[in-house]
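Ticket #4471: structure export looks truncated?
Reporter: QA, pipeline team
Priority: medium

Steps to reproduce: submit the single chain below to the structure queue and open the exported record.
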Amino acid sequence: MAKLYEMSWKKAKIAFQKTSTAIFPIGSNEQHGPHLPLGTDWIIANEIATRLSEKTNALVFPVFPYGYAEYHMDFPGTMYLEKETLRIVLMDLCRCLNKWGIKRILFVNGHGGNMDTLHTVGIKIRKKYGMLAAAGQWWEMLPPRIKGDITESHGGTVETAMVRAINPNIVDMDVAFLAKVKPLTKKIETVSIVHSKFEGGLIRIFLRVGDVSEHGSMTEIEGATEVKDYSAATPELGRELLDKVINQLADFIPEFEKIELPKPQEEP
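Actual output as written to the record:
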């Protein structure tokens, strides 16, 4: 349909009369290895949302570039909001959307660290305003492995290809490197900053990225390997994968709009 931030208030008034569905891109500003920009998460989310505006009747809102990323603060340039701050800000924005008649929100989320808060916000706006929220994360909409690399690797082949497709000038391919997470001890095997393995069982140790990676890129799933050869991370691959995600979300929105809206409930 259109992008709200390009409209005058009079055009926005007309747009709100034509749709009750919003597309809300959100990401993070954090390190993504030695080669990708700090804005990788929100850049990808914004690209997906912007292109969705050309394929659906939903109204696209300005990208929100900050999320919960405290665990990335070992690397210069990372900026984040505490989960409670993020929740309050998103609730305030959803209150505005509700006032202008929006009843369904698709969060296009480019940063996994936001998901707990998005879930909380989705439940609260359902109860308070009778709104229905959904969240799409591109790495969950693609095969788990692409070109031999884990799809959701932080700074890996897929993420690099996507950013190169959007703007190749902000990717430094000469220093591209995906590091395998470092073990904590000889007996504790690190799987990610969330999971570690000890004597065959998973144990959660509350870590930061700096504990397991010196480069800011990292594997996040058991069995993933480091990547030094990024020849597969082409702009062509990035465009192909972006198209797949965008088309899938464009098909999802009309079905999302068929779901019966919940009734608001009184807060306890």
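Status: closed, not a bug. The export was complete when the record was re-opened. Leaving a note from the reviewer for reference: The beta strands are 2-3, 21-26, 59-60, 104-109, 132-136, 145-146, 149-150, 189-190, 195-198, 201-204.
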